[in-house]
Write a structure and sequence with these properties.
This protein folds into four domains: about 90 residues; about 100 residues, Helix Hairpins; about 150 residues, no CATH class; about 110 residues, no CATH class. Strands 1, 2, 4, 7, 10, 12 and 13 form a seven-stranded mixed sheet that branches. The protein is built from three helices and 27 strands.
Length: about 525
């Protein structure tokens, strides 16, 4: 069966960009004839995955797809050089080569002249020595001859240096011109793919074709831009798209997904989990082994492990985002920013500090996620009244959940933390009592003319016991001042008001009481 010699253009109409690949959709209208025919469509990316190729026709036309396959061939890049007329680059190479040959000959003649002048100077000096030894003295003539030889040697030496410098510049320019000519006129062949489609049609007429396939070398990552203007915050959600599939995406419907198609065919392995019961030893009956551990506080449940490439955290559920307008992404492998959504909402600001983690006071802005979709983990460009303030990180946030962003530290605040610990044992009960005292010294170094008080939120954690043998008690009477609130995770909070140039000291005292059976505390 003959194939149409001229390929039919098959543009990209929609792209679903996954975490490390892309699903390409193409659509066009074919003018079919009655009978079985083979069509050549393309060109398409040579990286298209053959087993994912799928072609279908509209159901309102009596035609069926018998076969669809990708055929690849090597084709030269761009037009081939003409055999009759040389290009501008070739003329330039010829001119540079002629000038290089002429300067080379000039350099050889200068070397010969300098060599002759060197021998002449040696002969003149020998003549002067012999004449002075035999009593002959012709000083004026000898002086004139020496001055003439030295002057000519200086002249020809300077000309030789000029010729050598021009030859070096010619060699550099000639090398660059030859490389440019190689890139523009003698590039290697390019691997191009076409789709051969075999169709059986019972009647002639137009029919719509829809074709899709997967292609590698494409990925995307979320990116954000937060603009703080007074008490309002604008959050812009963008997608950074990279693709080097071998063809450009022009005015396509772009869909972004966190689905991992490569892991869909890998079922989890099932293993045995055996539970056995055993009697405790006498030592285990007498003691209770405890230990201190760090645990991250999560508001959205346990954090799901992200497999595959780092940077995309979808909370364990596949998320799909859509570009509101058609976009164009060139296949140059560079990052292209695609706007997805933007919203403006009221924001709450506070100056917060956790001295156990950092001695800096940070401006924290909190707001609700009103984008209508989940905010995936990614970098955030922070912008406020003075302009770009830096780059932060946004964790995964569910729709409608609370978002917290840190807009940098305040350089005019400092916090110093001192912790002390004392241990005592009660005489009758033999209980171990550990008393810990934490002092926080907060200072504000204000600039001249700075007025108004500032409220700084201090947070310090208190251990939380999970066993009855260990008790944790906050000694409110010893705290100065007492915490404004202590939540279920043991985070104590103070709202400290600081005037310009003010200093405050906050003291926290709590006790850990353990019975005599407890070890490891």
């Amino acid at each position: 069966m003959p194939t149409a010699p001229k390929p039919i253009a098959l543009p990209v109409t929609a792209v679903t960009c996954l975490e490390d690949r892309a699903h390409i959709e193409r659509a066009l209208v074919l003018d079919l004839e009655a009978g079985v025919q083979r069509l050549r469509l393309g060109p398409v990316s040579a990286l298209a995955v053959d087993r994912t190729l799928h072609a279908e026709l509209t159901a309102d036309h009596p035609a069926t797809v018998l076969d669809a396959r990708i055929v690849r061939s090597w084709e030269p890049r761009g037009p081939r050089p003409s055999a009759d007329d040389d290009s501008v680059l070739r003329h330039r190479v010829h001119t540079l080569e002629e000038e290089q040959v002429a300067l080379g000959r000039r350099r050889d003649r200068l070397h010969v002249r300098l060599d002759v002048l060197g021998r002449l100077a040696a002969d003149l000096l020998r003549e002067i020595g012999e004449g002075a030894g035999s009593g002959e003295a012709d000083g004026p003539r000898w002086g004139r001859e020496l001055d003439r030889v030295d002057s000519e040697r200086d002249t020809y030496g300077e000309e030789l240096r000029t010729v050598n410098a021009r030859l070096a510049a010619l060699a550099l320019e000639l090398g660059e011109t030859r490389r440019a000519m190689d890139l523009s006129e003698s590039e290697p062949a390019e691997l191009v793919g076409h789709i051969e489609l075999t169709v059986d049609s019972t009647a002639s007429g137009p029919v719509r074709l829809r074709l899709s396939h997967l292609v590698p070398c494409a990925l995307w990552r979320p990116a954000y831009r937060a603009v703080l203007d007074g008490d309002a915050l604008t959050l812009e959600t963008d997608a950074m798209v990279w693709q080097r599939t071998g063809e450009d995406w022009s005015d396509v419907r772009l869909t972004l997904s966190t689905a991992r198609s490569a892991l869909a065919t890998d079922p989890p392995r099932l293993g045995e989990d055996r539970l056995t019961l055993g009697d405790r030893t006498p030592a285990e009956r007498r003691t209770v082994d405890v230990e201190l551990r760090e645990e991250e506080i999560a508001d959205l449940g346990p954090t799901a492990a992200v497999l595959g490439l780092p940077g995309v955290d979808d909370g364990g559920e596949a998320r799909v985002l859509h570009s509101p307008v058609p976009v164009s992404v060139r296949g140059d492998g560079r990052a292209h920013r695609v706007p997805l959504s933007a919203f403006t909402t009221a924001a709450d600001r506070e100056y917060a500090c956790s001295p156990e983690l950092s001695p800096l006071v940070t401006q924290v802005v909190s707001f609700d996620n009103r984008s209508g979709h989940a905010l995936l983990a990614g970098p955030v460009d922070l912008v406020r009244g003075s302009g770009f303030g830096g780059r932060g990180t946004l964790d995964f946030v569910a729709p409608g959940a609370r978002v917290e962003l840190a807009f940098g530290s305040c350089d005019d605040h400092r916090v110093v933390r001192h912790a002390e610990e004392s241990r005592d044992t009660a005489g009758f009960t033999q209980r171990t009592v550990v008393t810990r005292t934490v002092r926080l010294h907060l200072s504000r170094f204000s600039a001249p003319g700075d007025e108004g008080d500032r409220v700084v939120v201090l947070r310090e954690r208190i251990p939380v016991s999970e066993v009855s043998a260990v008790e944790v008690r906050l000694r409110t009477e010893a705290c100065s001042p007492a915490p404004a609130a202590v939540d279920a995770e043991g985070i104590a909070r103070w709202d400290v008001t600081l005037p310009p140039g003010g200093r405050r000291t906050v003291t926290l005292v709590y006790e850990l009481s353990a019975s005599a059976k407890v070890v490891g505390l």
